[in-house]
Backbone:
């Protein structure tokens, strides 16, 4: 009955998915491109040279240990846009399941105490109605059985959308953007969850705050990986 009233939409074409249990059109599944090996052992970017660390990470000092992303951004861009800005929160069911399945080895190797979604500022969350990173983290938690802490980290600064800024502007924009919102849980190893990783500015700023407040190791997973700096 729920499927009849609220039909599942395909995260690629946004058409109604046929079949009782489907989350994506059969013909659209092959259009999503996974980040395949070899990838950077630090940021998860697909490598085009014979090295373990990409050129970006060799010249940058990251606050996280390492991370992985599921899709190449260009193949998932339209769906991510609709998830964030067009109310297609149901896409998170498919995306979270995919992250749990294809990043299983990474999750198991990290053995985190919890997942922490990158938070939205309260004004933006109120406007949007939800936080897409939180939706992804909840679904990933459901499939991986890793606890999720949606209120552990708080965004206290209403930052400018990062797509408008260059790398240095991104770093300046994010300074003092996050703070710890609770101190009743001791977490030593965590995985930050976000929708897109491009330069790593957001993950780095959040990871720095976590490390300054007692978290020893910070990793990340992202739904999609941009092309870099």
Residues:
């Amino acid at each position: 009955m729920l499927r009849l009233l609220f039909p599942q939409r395909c995260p690629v074409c946004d058409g109604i998915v046929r079949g009782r249990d489907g989350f994506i059109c059969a013909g659209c599944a092959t259009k999503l491109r996974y980040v395949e090996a070899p990838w950077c052992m630090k940021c998860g970017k697909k490598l085009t040279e014979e090295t373990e660390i990409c050129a970006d990470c060799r010249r940058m000092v990251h606050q996280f240990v390492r991370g992985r992303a599921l899709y190449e951004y260009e193949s998932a861009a339209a769906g991510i846009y609709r998830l964030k800005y067009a109310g297609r929160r149901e896409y998170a069911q498919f995306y979270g399941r995919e992250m749990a399945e294809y990043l299983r080895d990474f999750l198991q190797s990290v053995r985190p105490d919890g997942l922490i979604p990158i938070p939205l500022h309260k004004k933006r969350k109120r406007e949007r109605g939800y936080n897409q990173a939180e939706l992804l983290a909840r679904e990933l938690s459901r499939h991986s059985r890793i606890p999720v802490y949606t209120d552990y980290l708080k965004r206290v600064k209403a930052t400018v959308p990062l797509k408008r800024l260059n790398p240095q502007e991104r770093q300046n924009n994010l300074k003092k953007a996050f703070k710890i919102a609770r101190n009743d849980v001791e977490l030593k190893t965590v995985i930050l969850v976000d929708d897109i990783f491009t330069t790593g500015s957001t993950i780095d700023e959040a990871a720095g705050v976590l490390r300054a407040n007692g978290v020893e190791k910070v990793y990340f997973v992202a739904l999609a990986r941009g092309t870099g700096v």
Observations:
- The two ends are 46 Å apart (CA to CA).
- The mean pLDDT is 90.
- Strands lie at 67-72, 114-117, 153-155, 178-180, 189-197, 217-225.
